[in-house]
Amino acid sequence: MRTNIVLDDQLVTEALQLSGRKTKKDVVNFALLQLVQSLRKQPQRHNQFVNKYINTPIKLDHFTPINRNDIYER
Asked: Each residue of 36-69: pLDDT tens digit?
C-alpha cells in the first residue's frame, strides 16, 4: 500500500539505529509487525490469566473465615 505520512525525524533516526534496519520503509514495516504481534498476544494473555486465576479456585488448607463482628472489634 502506498501512502504519504509525516514521521518524527528523531524517532525514526533512533528506530533505525536500535532496530538495525536500513530504510524508513523497513522501520515502519517492522514497527507495524511488532504492533500487530503485541496486540494479538493481549487476548491470549487475558485468557491465560482467566484460566489460571478465575477458573481455578485457590485451595487454602488452613483457612478460617472471620466473622464480620470480629473485624469491627479489632
From this structure: 998 888 888 888 887 787 777 777 788 777 788 8
- In angstroms, rounded to a whole number, what is the distance separating the alpha carbons of residues 47 and 54? 10
Its pTM stands at 0.58
DSSP category for residue 37: H
- Rounded Cα distance between 58 and 51, Å, is 12
Distances in Å between the Cα of 26 and the Cα atoms of 1, 37, 63, 68 are 14, 16, 57, 62
CA distance 23 to 15: 10
C-alpha cell at 19: 532496530
Distance CA 74, CA 67 (A): 12
